[in-house]
Amino acid sequence: MDIPLKKKRFTTKKILTIGGIALLLALIVFVIISSLGGSKLNVEKERISISSVEKGVFQENIPVNGIVLPITTIYLDALEGGRVEEKFVEDGAILKKGDPILRLSNTDLELSLVNQETQVYNLLTQMQISQNAARQNTINKLNQYTDVESGLIEAKRLYELNKKLYAKDAIGRQDLVKAENDYNYQKERMKLSKQILKQDSIAVKQEKGQVQSSYARTQNALELMRRKVADLVVKAPVDGQLTSLDAEIGQSKNKGERLGQLDVLSGFKVRADIDEHYISRIYNGQTGSFSFNGKSYKLSIKKVYTQVANGRFQVDMQFEETVPEGIRRGQTLQIRLALSDEKQAVMIPKGGFFQQTGGNWIFKVSEDGNTAYKTEITLGSQNTENYEVLNGLEPGDKVITSSYDNYGEVQELILK
Questions:
Q1: Distance between CA atoms of 246 and 234, rounded to whole angstroms?
Q2: What pLDDT, on a 0 to 100 scale, did the predictor assign at position 363?
Q3: Contact 189, 151 (CB under 8 A)
Q4: b/e map of 80-119 (b: 16 or more CB within 10 Å)?
């Protein structure tokens, strides 16, 4: 008699199938949890930077590079073109006002000076001849006036005498009429002579004024030409140090060409380059600070150059109070330029986290210090050291400020 075998409930095949389904479900659940942001990552504390959120005095500023320059720079240009004949000093020399720097030669200019001097001397000779002729002419007219005056006196005497003689019937009427006509004639001559003398005087004054004006113009032209020739010797306009001298013996220089510059050593200024992004926030009087030999010094903006080149513009800054001892022309300074007034604010130190988060979130450390989780934040202004926190963190919180390059989409860090 056959005994029926009891069929097994779980076969090896079923067990393997169920196990595969379970593993598949576990994988699906893991993927879903990962996509929902629940991933974690173990991180060693020694490899990260943990900073404290603090409340204190905050001032928005930006770092800029400044170059130390003389307080005043005077450029030396060739006022007249010519050939470099002689150099009296070398680049870097300390000069006093009026000290010669170099001498140019210009044959055409020197010849023009000789011609101008000759013209002045010729004009002076013509003036003397003209004045002598005018004086002689005046003398002749005065002699003529004297003769007319003498004739008038004699005609008047005869007319008066003949009137008396005619009254006594000593002479005829014809003699009286002739004497009267002579007297009237001499009076008219006298009037004409006075007019001639007056016109001569006016003409002499006008001619003298014209000649003097012409002489003065020619003399001014001569003085100008002499100054132009004198400008061939380039001299220091003020006390200072000669720099960037570009002139060699035998070299030809055109009019207006740059020869060098003179730096006034009475003080210094700082010229800084600033990103054009801040051009609307930069103004005269704005302050900045820098460290030099362990001490902090202040600067203020004196002039803003609004021309933008290669995405940057420049400002001139002057030292407040004292100039650092030992500072030199051409030295580079790291300046923190203030963009706002000081205020109380919540702050976190700057760090590499910003490159990955853009300041929209940060890893905040838990109170027990064992974990750090992703927290949304809002940042405001910044300076060279800190970010201003507007929302998401409180003073006393701990945050990770080092780089997040290796964290990917991790939502929580396990700190070990």
A1: 13
A2: 94
A3: yes
A4: bbbebeebeeeeeeebeeeeebbebebeebeeebeebeee
Sheet holding 100-105, edge to edge: 233-235, 100-105, 82-87, 252-253
- Of 3.30.428.10, 2.40.420.20, 3.40.50.1460, 2.60.40.1180, the CATH number of 36-59+343-415 is 2.40.420.20
343-381: pLDDT as tens digits: 999 999 999 999 989 999 999 999 898 999 999 999 999
Could you tell me the two tokens for 200?
């001569």
What is d(CA 80, CA 229) in angstroms, rounded to the nearest whole number? 8
Whole-number Å distance between alpha carbons of 393 and 370: 18
Query: Scanning the structure block, which residue is given the tokens 């030099």?
Result: 292
Contact 98, 186 (CB under 8 A): no
Strand bridging mode 412-415 / 40-43: parallel
CA dist list (Å): 312 to 205, 272, 307, 413: 67, 10, 8, 41
Of 121, 113, 115, 87, the C-alpha closest to 230 is: 113
User: Using one digit for the tens of pLDDT, what is the confidence trace for 219-244?
Assistant: 887 788 888 888 889 999 999 899 88
Q: Domain 61-68+266-338: which topology?
A: Elongation Factor Tu (Ef-tu); domain 3 (2.40.30)
